Amino acid sequence: MSTLTDLRIAAVGDIHLGEDVRGQYRKKLVGIEERADVFMLAGDLTRHGTLEEGKLVADELRGLPIPVVTVLGNHDYHSDLEHEIADELRDAGVIVLNDDGVVIQCGEHKLGVVGGKGFGGGFAGKCASEFGEREIKNFVSHTRGIAESWKMALKEMEADQRVVLSHYSPIKETLEGEPHEIYPFLGSYLLAEAVDTAGADLILHGHAHKGSEKGMTPGGIRVRNVALPVLGRAYAVYCLTCAESPSHDEHQH
Amino acid sequence: MEAPQYVAARVQQALAEDGRTHELGIRVDIRGDQLFLRGQVSGSEQRERLGQVAHETAPELHVHNEINVVEATEPGEDEHLD
């Protein structure tokens, strides 16, 4: 007999921590293990992407009682120290995705997470294309390469539920509230197209502080903008329903 | 005299690019000799730095710092996606 259980995902983006708020965000995470099975961060953990800020974020996230998965955001790239910041986070036990995936064992369920920073370019019908100057081609091909990596990672992944974690947005709906003129810098439909092709249960992103929390891809995958200013709370919790069946016993660890 | 739109754009760029702030989402409006900053940041020190950078970039204008400091509240209700 199969029963239904929930896989609980706590999520936030754009926490933008700095020395002046050291320790304050950590206080909000007390008891997170009672509310969620995993904690996901959608990038922009720092303000300027300095190593000092990276270490501070690592300190804030160190030793949480549930798995922590993150991607970096554009702010975390600003000082060209994204690899060093990722290393600091990994040393603190945080899983940092960079256009790849991870499978986390949450109780009896395998939760697959694929993601990375993402990038911009705009949305179908009103977007940049790989044409003209080298700079524009580079811009678009950067996004296209990321989308392709996510699609491959999702297709190869074996998990009960699959979540995509991004900084940039895959859809326009969750940008509502932002000026339309900057949409091409906030995300790209190529990300949604890739995820719709490979399949996933939920997409989380940040970046758009004035956007809206809830949207959906053209393929019907739920999208949530978890940027802290959008949520207005320390993190959101999304529950994915898992059907428990005997076949779960066969999964390898 | 420089058109206020260009001054506002220069201030907004300074808020994004200055090493003290790097804040991208701040709205800058100029009316006469008054400059208004609006948006949300995570701490009061960041709000003060933004006001300072705006003042340094357009010292001839009177800066009204109307930026809100948003403190994240406790996590609320779960959402069930079924």
Largest sheet of chain A: 6 strands, mixed
Assembly context of the chains: heterodimer
The string of secondary-structure elements of chain A, in order, is EHHEHEHEEEEEHEHEEEHE
Looking at the overall shape, the CATH architecture of chain B is: 2-Layer Sandwich
Q: State the end-to-end CA separation of chain A.
A: 23 Å
Q: Spatial order of the strands in the main sheet of chain A?
A: 5-6-9-10-12-11
Strand-residue proportion of chain B: 25-35%
Please tally the helical runs of chain B, counting DSSP H or I stretches of 4 or more residues.
2
Strands of the widest sheet of chain B, in order across it, are 1-2-4
Order of helices and strands of chain B: HEEEHEEE
Name the beta content range of chain A: 25-35%
Number of strands of chain A: 13
Number of helices of chain A: 7
CATH class designation of chain A = Alpha Beta
Greatest interface by residues involved = A-B, 36 and 20 residues
Residue-averaged pLDDT of chain A:
93
Which class of secondary structure composition applies to the elements of chain B? alpha/beta
* Helical content of chain A (DSSP H or I, runs of 4+): 25-40%
